[in-house]
Amino acid sequence: MSRLDEQDFDEKRLARRNRRKKSQLIAYISLAVAIIVIVVAVVFGIFFLKSLFGAGKSVETSDVESEAATLESSQEIVIETPETVEEPEEMTEEDILDEVVSGVINEMPIEDKVAALFIITPEQLTGVETAVKAGSGTQDALSKYAVGGIVYSAKNIKSEDQITEMLSTTSSMSKYPVFTVVSEWGKGSISSSIGLDGIKDFTDSESASENGVTVAGTLYKYGFNFDLTPNMDISENGIFGADIDAAKEIASSFTGALQGEGVLACAYPFPKQGDTSSGMEQLDDTAETLATGEYSLFKTVIDDGNVTAIMLSNSSFPNVIGDNTPASLSSVMIEDELRGVLGFDGIVITGALDDGAITEYYTSDQAAIEAIEAGADMIYLPEDFETAYNGLLEAVNSGEISEDRIDESLYRICRVKYVDRVEEITKGE
User: Nearest to residue 310, comparing CAs of 366, 229, 409, 253?
Assistant: First the structure.
């Protein structure tokens, strides 16, 4: 082989070697890159999987821990500190009275509620001509008509023992406490029948107080608990005289002594009385003139707390009321004047509804309904008791008068009748 050929052969061999080295280098580089990519991918994958499973595990762990905490809480025995039990406030006598009265009223059927608003004679109750004894007729009548009061006059009294027995038996027959009422006690009236002829003249507060003690002691002994007195007439013929300032002190002393001895006082007639026996009597007094006269006399006994009830006049006062409505049937006179101006919250009783001033213009049921609608609490001597009772009951049943309105009057009446029950409860404790 020539030198030239040998040289050419060597060059070709070197070129092949270089190409082989170059190919190997490229192969090594490619392998290294592939390994790096694989390593990066593996690392990234591991990181991703770790993050994924780590979060799930965290949530799962949180749930498990929460469940465990709940289970542990439910199984945990908790020893609570006993709550401090407050001692109930001691009930006052007023609270007890309210509770007693509410309980009585809630249990009363509507027929008894309506009957309880009436004060009638024993003759009106039983239908006899003259009642001098309480027997089976009285029992039957009281079972049907549980009236709130029965008013007696001289014809019902034959002797002290007789009236004592009659009143005691009547009270025991009544479903509820009943007012046993004296309609009058002056000369020529019921007083002479039960030994009250020795009443002194009302000259001052001392004599008035002595008279109150005497009257109450006698009435109470026989079983009377309610006296329709005093007549608040301010005149020379009135029991307190014509001097308004002196009359205030005398009237309050008398009524205070009367009630202090256990007999309820009912001042009358508010605001003043004309002659209503034969028909309507219109009086020209204004609210201003009454305020300085009769109003001030009534207000004194009211403010002194010495009167339980006030009976209304059957006269009309157009300058006060605005029309000829008798005071007994006037909401202006009852609600605005007596309760509003004078502040009286006791029992309001109508004048005798058998007066000509009433019967000439109203039927017995109309008068009873209008009296209750006007704000009166008790209906005194309706001309026809059964008609008045049935008419008022129908007015309540029809919704013309609400039962709440009846309950309002019953609340005032029962607070007076059941005050002794409070004393019994208090003593029993």
Answer: 229
Cα separation, 216 vs 225, whole angstroms: 8
Is 178 in a helix, a strand, or coil? coil
Closest CA to 310 of 276, 282, 350: 350
Does the N-terminal peptide bond of residue 271 adopt cis geometry, omega within 30 degrees of 0? Answer: yes
Answer whether 290's CB lies under 8 Å from 331's CB. no
The structural domains of the chain, with segments of one domain joined by +, span 1-79, 93-428
In whole angstroms, how large is the CA radius of gyration of the chain?
Answer: 49
Strands (E), 204-247: 226-227
> Cα–Cα distances in Å, from 259 out to 193, 211, 322, 372?
22, 12, 36, 26
The whole-angstrom separation of Cα 410 and Cα 429 is 27
DSSP states of 250-317 as a string? HHHHHHHHHHHTT-EEEEEEES-----SSS--B----HHHHHTTHHHHHHHHHHTT--SEEEEPSSB-
Please name the helix (run of DSSP H) or strand (run of DSSP E) that holds residue 231, with its range, or none: none
Residue 420: alpha-carbon gap to chain centroid: 20
Tokens coding 161: 């023992």
Contact (CB, 8 A) for 272 and 289: no
Distance of CA 376 to the CA centre of its chain: 17
The model's pTM is: 0.78
Per-residue model confidence as pLDDT tens for the chain (429 residues): 444 344 444 455 555 556 655 656 665 666 665 676 565 555 555 555 455 444 444 444 444 444 444 444 444 455 555 565 566 678 888 899 999 999 999 999 999 999 999 999 999 999 999 999 999 999 999 999 999 999 999 899 999 999 999 999 999 999 999 999 998 654 446 766 777 766 778 889 999 999 999 999 999 999 999 999 999 999 888 889 899 999 999 999 999 999 999 999 999 999 998 877 778 889 999 999 999 899 999 999 999 999 999 999 999 999 999 999 999 999 999 999 999 999 999 999 999 999 999 999 999 999 999 999 999 999 999 999 999 999 999 999 999 999 999 999 999 999 999 998 777 666 655
**3-state helix vs strand vs coil in the chain, percent to 5:** 60, 10, 35
Superfamily of 93-428 according to CATH = Glycoside hydrolase, family 3, N-terminal domain (3.20.20.300)
Cβ neighbours of residue 407 under 8 Å, at least 6 residues apart? 105, 113
Q: In what order do the strands lie in the sheet with 264-270?
A: 347-349, 309-312, 264-270, 226-227, 179-182, 149-152, 118-120, 379-380
